[in-house]
Amino acid sequence: MIWTQDRLKDRQRVVHWDLVRSSPEYSVERILDMSPGANQRVYNGFNKGRISVPESAFSDGNFSLIINSVATTDRGVYTCNLHHHYCQIHQSIQIQLNVTKIARKEKRYWDGEKTVFVVLLGSSVALPCVNRRPLWREGLQEDQQQVAHWDFQPPGVRPDRADRLVDLYASGERREYGPLFARNKMSVAEDAFSVGDFSLSISDLAPVDKGLYSCHLHHHYCGLHERRIFRLTVGPPLPPALTAIKSESLTVFPDVERPRVVNVILPEHRGYFMQQMGYILATFLLLAFIVAAVIVLTRRRKKRGILCVCLLIYELCALYVLCCAISCVQTILSTDYKNNLLKERDMTKECNKGEQARCD
């Protein structure tokens, strides 16, 4: 709805003040509301004639809340809410009001989040809420505030060098640039602002038409701006339909004689059989060579394994003989003999027993 034109004088603007009390219980109360086409509405009978908003609020943008004869029940956090339903814009401001009975304690300060007023009991105060943007004031012609335009950026051209194609205004004014619109190559619907369709139509596409096309929508009344960018690529023309080619090839001319086709089977060459037999024999020979190589390698490994086993047995036997000899010497040395002859005889016997056992 923002980008369409409805020619309504009342732009569906509303202002309302709310009060949030934290004691004795948390509560929210609507104080008053007002719109351009209606009188302000005060919700609490106690506040009628005591709380108000200037009648010229929607003309000068002053929506301040005026409170006369401030009472202790007026303390709390006040919120000024501005709603623009047509432009879908909502703004708000918070002000805290405290009441005191001592005149020297009256002050106004900022607590980091909102403005705080400390007001003397029974006095009058104006809680400020001022917004002088044209959006919230009357007397403006909305028809001149809505603009749409298309730009064209050829390949290799910077955005600030783009060509302007057309400007559209909600009042009905249209400005076309360049020869493209003069030749009716490009066009935009006449009822663009009525239906919200600002599409750009391009006919007879050519390679020179490729590039970036951007659509800009400006709503100065609502302070909004939108943009859409499209990349157009133009390829070579499509080839003729295959169906047309097939239909032409299937056309029958009665006066033209159809060619006759004769199938001829040629015998195979005489050496073909010998060639195949040669391939088969070569394959068998290769397999036989591989099998023979595997058998030879296996036998060699087995022989090497037997030789290693024999060497290992021989080494073990030598080690055993050495151990037996050492034990014989130790036994003889440990025996106490009366003379050397007996000692030599016993040593000879022990050694002979060790050699006989080794040979066995």
TrEMBL record:
Keywords (A to Z) from UniProt: Membrane, Transmembrane, Transmembrane helix
Coiled coil: none
Organism: Myripristis murdjan (pinecone soldierfish)
Domain Ig-like: 1-100
Chaperone keyword on record: no
GO CC annotation: cell surface; membrane
GO biological process assignments: cell adhesion; cell differentiation
Transmembrane annotation, as ranges: 277-298, 305-333
Protein name in UniProt: Matrix-remodelling associated 8b
UniProt keyword Repeat present: no
Alphabetical list of InterPro entries matching this protein: Ig-like_dom (IPR007110), Ig-like_dom_sf (IPR036179), Ig-like_fold (IPR013783), Ig_V-set (IPR013106), MXRA8 (IPR042472)
